[in-house]
Design brief:
It is a single chain. Helices cover about 15% and strands about 35% of the residues. The protein is globular and about 60 Å long. By secondary structure, it is mainly beta. The strands form four sheets. The protein has a seven-stranded antiparallel beta sheet with strand order 3-2-6-9-10-5-4. A three-stranded antiparallel beta sheet has the order 1-13-14, with no helix packed on it. It folds into two domains: about 160 residues, Roll (Pnp Oxidase, Chain A), CATH 2.30.110.10; about 30 residues, no CATH class. The longest helix is centred in the first third of the chain and has 9 residues.
């Protein structure tokens, strides 16, 4: 059944919000960092993550060369330098001096000390769909964070304050308020559209526009 209030807006990837990360790789013996939003979890055990990079990026060569890369989570105060890493190419600009780099167990995946969370990855598969991007899937060998960003041993999103990205309008955002605990808040739902149970029966935008 068609929804008359829904407008077709094209076959585009409206996955909101997107994470903003800095992907690191050693290229030609020195660290290089690239701003990447096409990033996602592949599986939890063993922990794997994917990054999709334009096939002409300088970083790709380093990932293939070493079989390693890092995914770093910048905080909101790093928005300018993060965006800069997506504007300039490592082919023309040496970005190794922008951050304090450290290495972990793999020894060839450069990570950014200034970022609250770092994931050190071993390349396990490269996917090429013949289009504009290459997809690198990495097993997370180790993750790193300072104690001040943790709560019970896990990164706290309110302490990390990650940068979010919205595609097509090209804007950065930060997180808003807490809504509830996953696999818990849904237990209150009784299916009758009661707003107190988290379901309005209509879109939030329609409600807010009244």
């Amino acid at each position: 059944m068609a929804a008359p209030d829904k407008k077709a807006i094209g076959a585009r990837a409206f996955l909101y919000p997107m994470p903003t990360t800095l992907v690191g790789a050693n290229v030609g013996g020195r660290p290089n960092y690239l701003a990447v939003a096409f990033c996602g979890i592949v599986q939890a055990k063993p922990a794997m993550i994917s990054v999709a990079l334009g096939r002409n990026h300088h970083t790709n060569a380093g990932i293939r060369e070493n079989g390693t890369f890092s995914v770093n989570i910048p905080s909101r105060h790093m928005v300018e330098v993060t965006d800069y890493c997506g504007i300039v190419s490592g082919k023309k600009v040496d970005k190794s001096g922008l951050f304090e780099t450290f290495y972990g167990k793999l020894e060839t995946a450069p990570m950014i000390r200034e970022c609250p969370v770092n994931m050190e990855c071993k390349l396990v598969k490269t996917l090429d769909f013949g289009s504009t991007n290459e997809v690198f899937i990495g097993e997370i060998i180790e993750s790193y964070a300072e104690e001040k960003y943790l709560c019970n041993g896990t990164p706290d999103i309110e302490k990390v304050v990650p940068i979010l990205f919205s595609m097509y309008d090209n804007n950065y955002w930060e997180i808003g308020r807490h809504l509830g605990r996953a696999w818990c808040v849904g237990k209150k739902f009784n299916g009758n559209g009661n707003p107190e149970n988290g379901y309005m029966g209509k879109s939030d935008s329609e409600t807010l526009n009244k």
